Amino acid sequence: MSTKGKKTRVAKDAAALKKAPASAAEPADAAAPAADPNADLSAKDYEKALRKLHVELVKLQLWVAHTGAKVCIVFEGRDGAGKGGTIKAITERVSPRVFRVIALPAPTEREKSQMYIQRYLPHLPAAGEVVIFDRSWYNRAGVERVMGFCTDEQVEKFLRGTPAVEKAIIDSGVILLKYWLEVSPEEQTRRLKSRFEDGRKVWKLSPMDLKSYNRWYDYSRARDAMFQATDTNFAPWRVAPSNRKKTVRLNIINDILKSIPYKELPREKLKLPARQKPGGYVEPNYPYKVIGQVY
User: Any idea what the Cα angle at residue 94 is, between residues 88 and 99, rounded to 5°?
Assistant: First the structure.
């Protein structure tokens, strides 16, 4: 397809999304939750609960660093399911040196020639790390399959081999948690539409999102096949209904904390030492270039 043709197609997809009704007339999905997106927690209740969970995440961080534990958390779901917001809620109060977020770009030509999972393996956690994959090797079972970036044979080969790879990862001492965020078609439409109008979110809406928007059932079939092949006893899929953003974030953090056998470590009580005396120091009369005080 020519460049002009691609631009025309993307423009049509964008127009179709803007006109799409966020109503009960949208395609239904048996696995989609029926939760009312307006029945979420209040900001006050959410912040109160999140604060307590953040305290526990810090305890988890200290335990991971102290014991050398290795934790790998995989987040998957449709566009607009809330993966990014959930990951931000998990990581905003912990150290990026312990909690590492991995969101790989499209593979290079060299990476395309490698064993499929090869480019993900270097990012698995070492001792004392929690690695969070914002989409993972399951791209092959989802977006690549639906968008035609790989063959059916490649997908089937991936689905057959993945349980063995994940078993090897777990046998190496990694705690592997896999989350699928399930959003309803109505809520997905609302969220994607909001990206047209909110200047803070425009970067989230890519041509790929527009192309994949109308392939709801293709994604449903891909999800079903993925679950059937990779929802194992040793690495089960944990489904998180995500119509209510605040609620799903709290529920996932709570589930992570319940799934890792961390303990609160004893900490030495800290006290600020006395600040040194000036010893004759005098502030210089220097023309500092102070930034504008607009706020």
Answer: 75
pTM of the model: 0.84
pLDDT per residue as tens digits for the range 229-282: 999 999 999 999 999 999 999 999 999 999 999 999 998 899 999 999 999 999
Question: What one-letter code names the amino acid at 187?
Answer: E
Alpha helices by DSSP H, listed for 136-270, are 143-146, 152-171, 185-197, 207-213, 216-230, 245-259
Q: Do 248 and 171 contact (CB within 8 A), yes or no?
A: no
Total domains present in the chain: 1
List the domain range (segments joined by +) for residue 159: 43-105+120-259
Angle between the 185-197 and 3-19 helix axes, to the nearest 10 degrees? 110
How many angstroms separate the CA atoms of 55 and 159, rounded? 38
CATH code where residue 158 lies = 3.40.50.300
99 DSSP assignment: E
